[in-house]
Design goal:
35% of the residues lie in helices and 26% in strands. By secondary structure, it is α+β, with helices and mostly antiparallel strands. It has one domain (6-175): Gcn5-related N-acetyltransferase (GNAT) (Aminopeptidase, 3-Layer(aba) Sandwich), CATH 3.40.630.30. The strands form two sheets. A five-stranded antiparallel beta sheet has the order 1-2-3-4-5, sandwiched between helices. A three-stranded antiparallel beta sheet has the order 6-8-7. α1 crosses α3 and α4 crosses α5. The longest helix is centred in the first third of the chain and has 18 residues, at 46-63. The N and C termini lie far apart (40 Å). It binds coenzyme A. Residues 33, 36-37, 97-100, 105-111, 134, 138, 140-141, 143-144 line the site of coenzyme A.
């Protein structure tokens, strides 16, 4: 299985490693950060962080896409996670998601990482639409989606009965927005 590495001057999207576990557990222990993710409860457990890495490494093997570790380009320190969920069951589409350590919010890291991931996705996965699933109160995340060119297109009620917004962009819209204007 080949998990690609994508980078800019300040960030790297790379495969998770087992030694990312403590930093990932620290990320997931931040109550403000996890507020709109999964159960919404902080999860500081090393075992649960290891489970997350194992699950999402397996996702790459099954689907040819998945979550990357988002790392600082200079230090290789884990500063977030970005990437895809493409579950064929009880999931509304090919989803791109983003999480950045709180001390780095407001510096453009999430949008920079999402641009790399979205561009890779449209060039590699052969899908017409990529979505992001965002809680209506998660305005920071909605702003990332809109900066990418995603639009709120519909809502989706999860199996646990939470209604979320689906933001989406098509491959044609993505490539048209990035084409140099003459
Ligand atoms: C959602 C989340 C990733 C957004 O992080 P963020 O820092 O607000 O988003 P970005 O990294 O794109 O940064 C954008 C902000 O940085 C500013 N910025 C500063 N330097 C910048 C640069 N070089 N490039 C782009 N933006 C820059 C932008 O003006 C923007 O400011 P604004 O928030 O006042 O509009 C973050 O809040 C998070 O991790 N939340 C918890 C997890 C979560 O909810 N994830 C989404 C699940 S749907």
């Amino acid at each position: 299985m080949n998990i690609p590495t994508l980078s800019t001057d300040r960030i790297v999207l790379r495969a998770f490693r087992e030694d990312d576990t403590p930093a990932l557990a620290k990320l997931h222990s931040d109550a403000e950060l996890v507020r709109y993710l999964g159960s919404g409860r902080p999860e500081p457990s090393l075992g649960k962080a290891w489970d997350y890495i194992a699950l999402h490494t397996g996702h790459w093997a099954l689907k040819g896409c998945g979550k990357w570790a988002l790392a600082d380009a200079k230090t290789d320190e884990l500063i977030g996670r970005v990437g895809y969920i493409d579950c064929p069951y009880e999931w509304p589409g090919l989803e791109l998601g983003w999480v950045v350590a709180r001390e780095l919010w407001g510096k453009g890291y999430a949008s920079e990482a999402a641009v790399l991931a979205l561009d890779w996705g449209f060039r590699t996965l052969g899908r017409d639409e990529i979505i992001s699933i965002i809680h209506p109160d998660n305005t920071r995340s909605a702003r990332v989606a809109e900066r990418l060119g995603e639009r709120l297109v519909r809502s989706w009620t999860t199996p646990s009965d939470v209604t979320l917004g689906i933001y989406a962009i098509t491959r044609d819209e993505w490539h048209a927005a990035r084409r140099p204007r003459s």
